[in-house]
Amino acid sequence: MPKQLVLMAAVAVSYFFYHYEFFSFADCVLECREKRRSVVILTFVLNYAWFVAASFLDLHLIVNWTIFFFFFLLQIRIFYHVGFDKSAMLAYFGIIPGLAWNICLRCIFALLLNRPLTSFDNQTKLPGNIKEYPIFLGFVITGFLFYFFRQSQLYERLCIILRDRSSLRFHVGIQFVLYVYLVLNLLGYYVPSNSVFLKFWGIKSAVFAFIGLNICIVYTMRMSRLNLYRRKMREEWTTMLTDKEEEERLWTLAYVDALTGCYNRHLAGQVLEKYSAASKDYCLCFVDLDHLKTANDKFGHQEGDRYLKTTASVLTAAARDEDYVFRYGGDEFLLLFSEKNRSQVTDLLKDTGEKLKQYSSDKNFPFIMSISFGVAQCSEAETAEELLSLADRRMYEQKRGKDRRKR
Asked: Long-range contacts made by residues 322-330, C-beta under 8 angstroms, separation at least 24?
């Protein structure tokens, strides 16, 4: 009897060591900074009480370990406030190594002592049952295993898996298969024969479970990393697109006229500086809408805005991709034509003016739309400012000529 009490106490101490190291390992995996000793002690008392009760009740080993798994599952979920998948993964990770070592050591003891596996089942009341020895060693070895995982930071692999839900579910599925594979080996403890084959089969199953669990962790970790990298790439791509869209939006606010959709005066200055500095051949055209103020006063600003937008549309249609159309002021537009001479631009603007007049009737305008323009070749002035002034002057000369003809 004293020997039995000593064995029970030794098993209790070994289980506490295993239990404490497992929950310390769980703290690391779940990144829980605060180690709650009261929780560890409470769960130890509950779990070990179940082990003792299961032994006295002579419950089947499969039932015993399965209920032990659900104890771990509920305790992790309640005390760490994590979802089912994370709780199941950690519970299986606590159970599978412990069960594998217990099966392996029971089979080794059975081989060394030439005893049948029934000597190591859950029926502790029967004479000759010596399951305490392999259980004691199994818990001690598994406890050191979790200690090693913590110290070597191998738990970080599980942390990576926990961050990817699809990989986590896959991992839990493989763990379930390994667990079922192991618990089926417990049926051998109820076979009365002293079969060497069953003992070696149990050792082989434990080794297979360890190898399978390791492969599962490595593979799932790599899969998780790929998924995390894929998500990160998507996020970076989305951020890049968002930044690009924001950049385009800000550029539009800075350089595009909101009413007409043409470039604005601010960009016109930059483009002129660039062309002048590069000594490019270009032609500048100043365009002014005739009688816009009269249209606004007589027909309202809505018709005046329609006048501006229609003119902008016609001018843009006349320009090529390499040309620029700017809204320079209230009723003024500036056009820059690359590699065109003054005569070509003048003919183009005359045609554009005729199209605009045609639009007046086609678009049901209550007035005739027309433009006045002045064209200047870059070779006619030394600076962009002088060229701009020349085009502006010629535009006003054309406008005054129209007014004289009307009188």
From this structure: 324/263, 324/268, 324/271, 325/262, 325/263, 326/262, 326/263, 326/264, 326/265, 326/267, 326/268, 326/271, 327/257, 327/259, 327/260, 327/262, 327/263, 327/264, 327/265, 328/265, 328/268, 328/286, 329/265, 330/292
> What totals of helices (H) and strands (E) does the chain contain, helices first?
13, 5
Identify which of 314, 307, 407 has the alpha carbon closest to the alpha carbon of residue 354: 314
* Maximum alpha-carbon separation in the chain: 132
Calpha distance 171→157 (Å, rounded): 12
Tens digits of per-residue pLDDT, 226-264?
888 888 888 888 888 888 888 888 888 999 999 999 999
Query: 263-406 maps to which CATH number?
Result: 3.30.70.270
Spatial distance between the Cα atoms of 327 and 24, rounded to a whole number of angstroms: 71
Q: DSSP letters of 81-99? A: ---HHHHHHHHHHHHHHHH
DSSP code of 380? G
- Could you report the per-residue pLDDT of 107-151, keeping only the tens digit for each? 898 888 888 777 766 555 555 567 778 888 999 999 999 999 888
pTM above 0.70, yes or no: no
Rounded to an integer, what distance in angstroms lies between the CA atom of residue 369 and that of residue 207?
A: 91
- What is the average per-residue pLDDT within 371-385? 91
Q: Kindly list the domain boundaries of the chain, sorted by start residue.
A: 2-238, 263-406
